[in-house]
C-alpha cells in the first residue's frame, strides 16, 4: 500500500491551557458525552494493552518510539509537550482524556493522512459539520467540511512506522481502495450512526435546548470490536454495540461434499464474505486480537468425530486452525508482534471489503455410513492468550464473540 512520507508534516505545539475538559461539554451535549465516555477514544491513553505495548517498545527503542505512539493515543499530551514522558506522570487531567471532545473539535485540517497528520486550533471556536450552528454562550462554532470525510479519521487510522515506512495499520487506505471509498461512503456513515450498517438517520438536537431539530445527529459510540474493553470499563451498551458491529461484518457459506463412502476424506469449503466492514476484516493492529474459524463435526450419536479451531483450556487456538490477520517480521525475518521492530509484513490473509475468501478443511475419512453434522463459526476475541498472560488477565475472562455461523450435513453411504 502506498506510503506517504511520514516525516513530511512539521510538529505542532500548543499551550497546555488551550484545551477544555470533556466534562465542560457534558452540560449541553449530555448524550454525546455519554456516548464518547464509554468509547475506545476516551480510553486511548489508559487502555492497559496499549500501555503495556508502549512500555515495551519505549524500553527497547530507548525512548525513540515514544513521541510516535503518544501522538495518536494521547494527542493533547503530545501537542502540549506534557507527554512524553510516557508514564503520563504529572500530566493534567485533560491530557489523560486521550482522544477527547476538544481535541477532535479543534481539528481544522488534515494535511497528511496517517501518523497524527492533523492540525489543531483549540480555543473559543469549536469546529464541526454544521454550517448553521447556533452560537452558544460557551463557544463559537465553525463549519469544516473535513468532519464529514474519511480523511478526518484517516489522520489517526493509518499507522506508518516513522523510521522504516512499514504500514502497521491501514484502515484508511483499505477503505479508500475498496468499494466504500470509491462511492465515498464515509467512516462516519457506519461508525457515527445508531447500530451497524450504513447511515441510518438519527433526528434530534445537537445540544440541550438547541432550537433546531436536525435530520441527523452523529452518534459518538464509535463501536468497533471492543467488547472486552467496554465491559471492563463498565459500559455494557458499548459492549453490546461492539458485538452487533462484529456480527454485521461477515457471512459464511459452506460447500459440502456429496455422497461420501466410508474412509473417503471430506473437503469442506468455508467461504467467508466481508459483508459489513468498510475496510479489511479484520482491520487495524490485528496482531493483538484473534479472529478464527471453529469447526465441529458430530455423528448421529452426538459424539465429536472431528474438530478444528476449538481452543484449549489455556485459550490457545490449535496450530493448524484458520486464523485471519496480519503478521509482521523484524529486520532479520523473524516473526514479531513488537510494533517498533516490525520491518515487513510476513503474512496477510484478511478479507477485503465486499470480497470473500475460500478456506478449506479436510475431515479424515469416516469409518461408518451415516450422517454427520457440521457446525462452523467465525469467532473474535479482543486479546490473545499471550496478551492476557502479559496483562495478568485470565484468558477465560475475555469474551469470545460469534461473528457468523453456518451448518450442514454430510452423508456417508
Ligand atoms: C452552554 C452550552 C454548551 C456547552 C457547555 C458546549 N456547547 Fe457545543 N454547542 C452548543 C450549542 C447550543 C450548539 C449548537 C447546536 C445547533 O446549532 O444545533 C453547539 C454546537 C457544537 C458543535 C457543532 C459545531 C458545528 O459547527 O458543527 C460542536 C462541535 C460543539 N458544540 C462542541 C463542543 C465542545 C467540544 C464542548 C466542550 C469543550 C462544547 N461544545 C460545550 C452548546 C454548548
Ligand atoms: C474522534 C473524534 C471525535 C471525538 C472524540 C468527539 N467528536 Fe464530536 N464529532 C466528530 C465528528 C467527525 C463529527 C461529525 C460527523 C459527521 O458529520 O458525519 C462530530 C459531530 C459533533 C457534533 C455535531 C452533532 C452532529 O450531529 O454532527 C457535536 C455537538 C459534537 N460532535 C460534540 C462532541 C462532544 C461534546 C464530544 C465529547 C463528549 C465529542 N464531540 C467527541 C468527531 C469527534
Ligand atoms: C486523534 C486521533 C484519532 C482520530 C482523529 C480518530 N480516531 Fe478512532 N481511535 C484512535 C485511537 C488511538 C484508537 C484506539 C484506542 C484504544 O483502543 O486504545 C481509536 C479507536 C477507534 C475505534 C474503536 C476500535 C475498537 O477496537 O473497538 C473506532 C471504531 C474508531 N476509532 C473510529 C474512528 C472514526 C470513525 C473516526 C473519524 C470520525 C476516528 N476514529 C477518528 C484515534 C483517533
Ligand atoms: C460499511 C460500514 C463501515 C465503514 C464505511 C467503515 N467501517 Fe470500520 N468497521 C465496520 C465493521 C462492521 C467493523 C467490525 C469488523 C472489523 O473489525 O472489521 C469495523 C471495525 C472498525 C475498527 C475496529 C478495528 C479493531 O481492530 O478493533 C476501526 C478502528 C474502524 N472500523 C475504523 C474505520 C475507519 C477509520 C473507517 C473509514 C476509513 C471505517 N472504519 C469505515 C464497518 C465500517
Ligand atoms: C497514527 C496513530 C497511531 C499511532 C502513531 C499509534 N497508534 Fe496504537 N492505535 C491507533 C488506533 C487508531 C488503534 C485502534 C485501531 C487499530 O488497531 O488500528 C490503535 C490500537 C493500538 C493497540 C491495540 C489496542 C487494543 O485494545 O486492541 C495497541 C496495543 C497500540 N495501538 C499500541 C501502540 C503503540 C505501542 C504505538 C507506538 C509504537 C502506537 N500504538 C502508535 C493509533 C495509533
From TrEMBL:
Pfam families: Cytochrome_C554. InterPro entries: Cyt_c-552/4, Multihaem_cyt_sf. It comes from the Bacteria. This is Cytochrome c-552/4 domain-containing protein. Gene3D superfamilies: Flavocytochrome C3, Chain A. SUPFAM superfamilies: Multiheme cytochromes. Residues 24-105 form the Cytochrome c-552/4 domain.
Amino acid at each position: 500500500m502506498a506510503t506517504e512520507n511520514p516525516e513530511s508534516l512539521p510538529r505542532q505545539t500548543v499551550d497546555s491551557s488551550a484545551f477544555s475538559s470533556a466534562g465542560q461539554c457534558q452540560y449541553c451535549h449530555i448524550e454525546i458525552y455519554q456516548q464518547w465516555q464509554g468509547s475506545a477514544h476516551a480510553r486511548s491513553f489508559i487502555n492497559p494493552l496499549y500501555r503495556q505495548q508502549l512500555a515495551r517498545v519505549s524500553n527497547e527503542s530507548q525512548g525513540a518510539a515514544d513521541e510516535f505512539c503518544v501522538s495518536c493515543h494521547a494527542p493533547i499530551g503530545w501537542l502540549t509537550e506534557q507527554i512524553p514522558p510516557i508514564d503520563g506522570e504529572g500530566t493534567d487531567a485533560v491530557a489523560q482524556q486521550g482522544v477527547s471532545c476538544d481535541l477532535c473539535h479543534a481539528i481544522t485540517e488534515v494535511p497528511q493522512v496517517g501518523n497524527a497528520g492533523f492540525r489543531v486550533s483549540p480555543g473559543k471556536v469549536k469546529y464541526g459539520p454544521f454550517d448553521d450552528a447556533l452560537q452558544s454562550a460557551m463557544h463559537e462554532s465553525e463549519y469544516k467540511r473535513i468532519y464529514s470525510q474519511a480523511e478526518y479519521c484517516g489522520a489517526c487510522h493509518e499507522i506508518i512506522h516513522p523510521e522504516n515506512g512499514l504500514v502497521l495499520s491501514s484502515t484508511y487506505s483499505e477503505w479508500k481502495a475498496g468499494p466504500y471509498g470509491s462511492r465515498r461512503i464515509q467512516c462516519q456513515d457506519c461508525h457515527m450512526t445508531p447500530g451497524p450498517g450504513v447511515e441510518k438517520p438519527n433526528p434530534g438536537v445537537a445540544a440541550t435546548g438547541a432550537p433546531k431539530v436536525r435530520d441527523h445527529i452523529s452518534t459518538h459510540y464509535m463501536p468497533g470490536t471492543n467488547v472486552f474493553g467496554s465491559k471492563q470499563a463498565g459500559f455494557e451498551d458499548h459492549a453490546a454495540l461492539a458485538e452487533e458491529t462484529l456480527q454485521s461484518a461477515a457471512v459464511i457459506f459452506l460447500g459440502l461434499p456429496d455422497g461420501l463412502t466410508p474412509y473417503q476424506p471430506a473437503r469442506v469449503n468455508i467461504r467467508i464474505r466481508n459483508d459489513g466492514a468498510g475496510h479489511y476484516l479484520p482491520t487495524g493492529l490485528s496482531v493483538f486480537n484473534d479472529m478464527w474459524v471453529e469447526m465441529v463435526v458430530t455423528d448421529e450419536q452426538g459424539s465429536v468425530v472431528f474438530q478444528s479451531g476449538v481452543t484449549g483450556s489455556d485459550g490457545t487456538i490449535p496450530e493448524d486452525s484458520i486464523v485471519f490477520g496480519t503478521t509482521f517480521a523484524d529486520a532479520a525475518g523473524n516473526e514479531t508482534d513488537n510494533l517498533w521492530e516490525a520491518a515487513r509484513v510476513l503474512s496477510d490473509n484478511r478479507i477485503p471489503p465486499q470480497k470473500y475468501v475460500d478456506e478449506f478443511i479436510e475431515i479424515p475419512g469416516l469409518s461408518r455410513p451415516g450422517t454427520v453434522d457440521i457446525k462452523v463459526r467465525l469467532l473474535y476475541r479482543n486479546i490473545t492468550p499471550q496478551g492476557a498472560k502479559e496483562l495478568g488477565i485470565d484468558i477465560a475472562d475475555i469474551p469470545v464473540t460469534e461473528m457468523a455461523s453456518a451448518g450442514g450435513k454430510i452423508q456417508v453411504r
